[in-house]
# Entry
Amino acid sequence: MMQQATDFFEECKALDRLLGSLSEADFETPTQFKGWTINNIIRHLHVWNIAVDLSLRDEAAFGAFVAAMMAGVRGGNLPEFEAKYLDGLSGDALRSTWIQRAEATAAAFGAADPKQRLKWVGPDMSALSSITARLMETWAHAQAIYDVLGVERIDTDRIGNIVRLGVNTWGFTWKNRRMEPPGLMPRVRLEAPSGAIWEYGEASDSGTILGNATEFCQVVTQCRNVADTALEVKGEVAHQWMSVAQCFAGPPQDPPLKGARYRADRGD
# Structure
């Protein structure tokens, strides 16, 4: 069993437990992520879990999905396409369908060859990279739901997958912006949820990033502005990286403005 597939489904289950107590009206709550509702976010996760499952099981069906998605998004927006693709599925029925498909996707990837090359909307990826990306996206989008519900997330060391993705996309962050890296990757030293220390990179003039692994994940997934974390960032190159870090595919995006993403105070 590919560990990343297990980790992906464990992250899905953690989000499912959070969603389990919500009313139908709660699913229409707008979040701090582009104003997307909780329904928008779960539809997004579900549709792209379907897509990655198709990329593994049926390349022709995946190609048809991409064609439909490209046609559907043209002149519109992604949430609208995803809602139409799912025939307006919402609320608890959406939650139930999403978690069932996530379990099937995890099982399929768990049995796959990690090195198998899979088609994607961008460059082809290995099965290992594909399911790791699904884990990261589930974790990142879930943050908006935890935030709007005012719930403190308790992470586990499975976020090490996201830390490694953040480190491994150091070069991608600059290439995606058509920029040359401003130096060597800074030294990264983080405390894992378990208390373990995770270290990456070598000491150099590029500086260092020290602190909490969860907060590093929040920055590289653009769930938080680095100024809203307690990360200790030293050196010009380190500051530049944390201001634009992007561990997810797609065109370059900027992190939220300082103070724009935070855990809401629900007063209880």
About this structure: The chain has a mean pLDDT of 96. The first strand starts at residue 117 and ends at 118. The two ends are 41 Å apart (CA to CA). The beta strands are 117-118, 125-126, 187-191, 197-200, 208-212, 232-234.
